[in-house]
Amino acid sequence: MCEKIQRFVQLVSEANNLHESVIAAGLDPSEDFVNADFRGRNFMGVDLSGYNLSGADLSEADLRGASLNRANLSHANLTDARLDRASLRGTLLIGAKLNRAKLTNASVRIAKLNDAELEFAYLEGADLRGVNLTGATLHHAHLGRVDFRGAQLSGANLTDTNLRCADMRGAYARGANFTQAKLDGADLGNANLTEVNLSHASLQRVHGDGCDLNGAQMQGADLRNANLSTADFSRAQLERTQFENALIVGAVFMECEGLSESLSAALELRGAIVSENSSSEVSFTQSDIENRIADLEHSVNRLGEWAENLRRKVSEERVSLFRGYPLNRSAIAQSEVLRDFANEVQTSCIEARQAIFAYRVSSLSETWTAKEFIAEYNDINEQLGKIGIFNQIVQIILVDIPGFIARSV
Predict the structure, then answer these.
(1) Pairing of the two strands 368-369 and 281-282
(2) Is 303 within 8 Å of 384 (Cβ atoms)?
(3) Considering the domain boundaries, does residue 82 fall inside one?
(4) Are 254 and 234 in contact (CB under 8 A)?
């Protein structure tokens, strides 16, 4: 068999026609390349699609631009191999060794790399959509701009990896280890990152709308300028995590640890849910509640103008009703209801302004406990909801006050 393989290699190097070389060497591509020795061989641009190369030694081989679609390379040795721009779609690479291999701009879609070794591998700009890297080792791998959409990364070791600007939308990475990884500018939208280790990882400017970080270890992680709106941080470890200028609108922080040092510098936490059971103290300068206060103040000012307009128009309508003959007592009674409603709206505006004033006085203290924050936040939200409802009702009534009275009689 060794003689046939050597003959095959010679023919390929001379003719670069793989199919003819296989026939001439008397080889079966489904069997005869298992555990073959192709160390340092040149297969640049060669089509090896569908070949069974399981266990083969392709270390230092040149496979640039080669086609290995649906090939079986399970447990193959591709250490230091060159696979730049190669196509490995649907390829089996289970348990394969690709340490220091170069796969820049390669297409590795829906390939299976379970338990594969890719330490210090170069995959910048590679297409790994739908790839399965469960349990794989990618320590110190270069994965900048890699497309990981829909990839399976559960239990993978990605410590110290470069994932800058990687697209990980919808990826499933439960329990993966990203310790000290660099994910700056990456897209983590709707990714499942439950129970991952992101300790001391850099996630500056990441986009992670809706990503699940439940139970994640994020001690010392850098999330400055990140957008993690609607993300779930429940049970996450957030000691010394940096959220400076981060957008975390509608995010969930239930039963987290280390909130006292984390959320104080967040740019916006509007709609965030913070666990009332947290024992940590939380400083909310530049936080969500400031935004809710601004929303409330705007709504109150607008409603105050409309309420005064409503009260004035109802008074004018009542004068008109009393001048009529005979008196329409039902309409007069309904106008009294509207007058009382206008007064109630104005009272609510006063109460809301008092709540705003009370918050601004109490916010002079440096820190609040999570429980105190939630109580204040809920009060402001309740006021905002009430004002919002009044705004809608008043707008409807103002359109046609006489008609509203007539319909209500």
Answers:
(1) antiparallel
(2) no
(3) no
(4) yes
Q: Which two tokens stand for residue 195?
A: 């129970």
Residue 402 β-bridge partners: none
The sign of the torsion formed by the CA atoms of 145, 146, 149, 155 equals negative
- Please give the Cα distance from 71 to 54 (Å, whole number): 9
pLDDT band for 387, please (50, 70, 90 cuts).
Answer: confident
Residue 264 to residue 399: CA distance in whole angstroms: 45
Kindly provide the b/e burial profile for residues 21-34, where b requires at least 16 CB atoms within 10 angstroms of the residue's own CB.
Answer: bbeebebebeebbb
Q: Which two tokens stand for residue 227?
A: 């957008």
Both structure tokens of 158:
């990605």
Helix (H, G, I), strand (E, B) or coil at 281: strand
Cα 279 to Cα 148, 193, 258, 287, 371: the distances in Å are 37, 25, 9, 19, 9
Residue 91 lies in a domain: no
Q: How far apart are CA 313 and CA 333, in angstroms?
A: 16
Quick one: pLDDT at residue 409? 47
C-beta of residue 198 within 8 angstroms of C-beta of residue 177: no
Q: Tokens for 122?
A: 């170069």
- Residue given tokens 């440096």 in the structure block: 366
Q: Lowest-pLDDT range, 52-56, 136-140, 222-226, 289-293? A: 289-293
Residues 252, 272 contacting (CB under 8 angstroms): yes
Cα 60 from Cα 232, distance rounded (Å)? 44
Give the whole-angstrom CA distance, residue 192 versus residue 72.
29
Position 315 in a domain: yes
Is residue 270, in this structure, part of any structural domain at all?
no
Place of tokens 């641009």: 45
Q: Residue 338's domain spans which residues?
A: 288-408
Report CA-CA distances (Å) from 224 to 189, 221, 230.
17, 9, 17
166: pLDDT strictly greater than 50: yes
- Token pair for 239: 């000691």
282 sits in which H/E element: strand 281-282
- Split at pLDDT 50, 70, 90, the class of 19 is low
What is the tally of structural domains in the chain? 1
Whole-model pTM: value is 0.67
pLDDT at 4: 62
